[in-house]
Amino acid sequence: MMHSNGSALAVAQRLNSKPAVGFLLLDSSLHPIAFNVEAIRVLSYPDRLATVRPADGFLAERIRETLLDPEPSRESPLVTEFRSGRRRYLCRAFRVDSDTKSPSHASIAVLLERAPVSVIPLSPVSEQFNLTRRERDALKHLL
Predict the structure, then answer these.
(1) Mode of pairing for the β-strands spanning 87-96 and 81-84
(2) Which of 6, 63, 64, 95 has a CA 20 to 30 Å removed from the CA of 22?
(3) Is residue 140 included in any domain, yes or no?
(4) Residue 73 falls within a domain, yes or no?
(5) pLDDT for 39-90, tens place per residue?
(6) Rounded to an integer, what distance in angstroms lies between the CA atom of residue 122 and that of residue 48?
(7) Following DSSP, what letter does each residue of the chain receive, concatenated?
């Protein structure tokens, strides 16, 4: 694809300037059904992608270690934010119901998005004051 004011490479670089979003589709047991490369990249950091094999087993383990909330809400068993290296990510989960109407067959679609840099890091504050999930969410919206 060529653009009137630049090469195809320049257009591709502009399109890729926005950070990629990781995507996971999980079954009701939180095992990965489908995922993209960015999800593996985020959850495998600092390891290289080439060393992560098989991806299904690795992702299932990292989901349990990184994304599973120790204080799950009724809406989602996953955390709303987490760290990968120095970066902070938002974890947005969406329940995907199947045609069978059975809760055991429901899936969860998960987006892993890089969070904007905040002025005050919330994680140390919430740890220092032992904030509940609701208090962390309220603080996040206030800042």
Answers:
(1) antiparallel
(2) 6
(3) no
(4) yes
(5) 988 998 877 665 656 777 888 999 999 999 888 877 789 999 998 888 889 9
(6) 28
(7) --BTTB-HHHHHHHHTSSPP-EEEEE-TTS-EEEE-HHHHHHHHTTS-GGG--SHHHHHHHHIIIIIB-SS--SS-SB-SEEEETTEEEEEEEEEE--TT--GGG-EEEEEEEEPPPPSS-HHHHHHHTT--HHHHHHHHHH-
